[in-house]
Design goal:
Largest sheet: none
Order of helices and strands: HHHHHHHHHHHH
Strand content: under 5%
CATH topology of the largest domain: MetI-like fold
CATH class of the largest domain: Mainly Alpha
Number of helices: 12
CATH superfamily of the largest domain: MetI-like
Distance between the termini: 60 Å
Radius of gyration: 26 Å
Number of strands: 0
Amino acid sequence: MNNVYSPPVMNSKRHNRTVRALNRLATAGFWLLGSLLMLLILWLLVAILKNGLFRIDFSFLTKVPEELDTGGGIGPVLFNSFYILFLSLVVSIPIGIGAGVYLAEYAPRGKLTEFIRVCVEGLASVPSIVFGLLGIAIFVEGFHIGLTILGGALTLAFLNLPVLTRVTEEAVRAVPQDYRDAAYALGSTKFQCIWRVVLPAALNGIITGVSLTAGRAFGESAVIILTSGLSTSGQIWDFNLLSPGETLAVHLWYVQSEALVPDARDIADKSAAVLVIVVLLINLTFRIPLWLRSRRTR
């Protein structure tokens, strides 16, 4: 008579109970961590917005800052913030996305490519003040253009490039190889495959990287202080690239630390609220088209 082995039933049941208990424990732990993170973000938003949000009016957003009197606004510095951000993205987005696509799709595998990738990763973690010093060396001392909007925008573009390159490369690499094989099977060239198949599939990751970069650039202060200065031309709509380019983040630092106006604290609270709101709106501006696109493709 053949002996048939049967696994111990009790050990199997005990193992299943242990696995289910660990699963419930892990689920509860992740819910707890997520809830703590959301509470922390909510607390930070309330702490920043509660003192200045409801005191913001249209005149504060359009008036020129005051040096000694009360009642100054943030009109020129707010415009400079958007202007410098726009110029930096115009320069950094095509170059950063193009470099990321090259590293993911065209660059040959080898030590040189890996060395370039390591350099890009290292530059992405370099403190912004180092890029500010680079901007001084190039634009202030090299080209002798002084502290200008142009210098600040191009230095911000240098700051954005490594992050955009790495985010784009990772997003493109995450696209399944089957997408490429199907495109090639239909007769697509490599460029057509990348343009019509790979980039649309990687768009969510690329846009996320662009929105994070834009939010960081809008709130950047060290680079702007060193390359654009602590003053404005005094005009709200000044498109001159060689004008001084103090931004909202720099103005907030200046008002909080060195300003002589009696209502400096009030201006700082309202400026901080505007800065947070604008950064949130920038992220929503980039994310809403992706949400609409995902709903159309369902």
